[in-house]
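Write out this protein's structure.
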Amino acid sequence: QFIVDYGLWAVFGGTFLEGESVVVFAGFLAHQRLLHLPYVVLCAFAGSFLADQLLFYLGRRYREHRYVRRIRDKPAFEKALSAIDRYPHGFILPLRFLYGLRTVGPVALGVSQVSPLRFLVLNAIAAAIWALCFSLLGYAFGQTIESLLGRLHGVETKLAVAAAIGVAIWLAYFLYSRHRR
């Protein structure tokens, strides 16, 4: 009952951070009929969209701060900003799918010359795609696990399987980002 009552709030709050595992977990719970999939997608969209908007405006507000200016004066950062200004669509849309850049990216975009309206529209599109993909991924995991293990019973079993899925996804992202570095 706790999951039914507060699960969507947890999805909303969890997506303020790097919330892929939260959304996948919620998609799994939607498959188990503890949450409704359309509401999971909506909460994931709203949380990630609002978090990125907030981070964008923080970057915009503090782009003239002395610490930010010191970072902006570095050649690599200047090169990155010029690439962002030249190809804003190519940076904003895939940004939330790149592990480790989801919190830094919107701040960098706030420092750039990308207009707030352009960021708002592209962020909304990217957040909708992201929320739908990861929610459906969790839902699909639920179908796969159910076919392998039979119909799961008991909240403890569902939570344990969902936690294992979340840990596996986090580990995959961690190893992938480490490999890319």
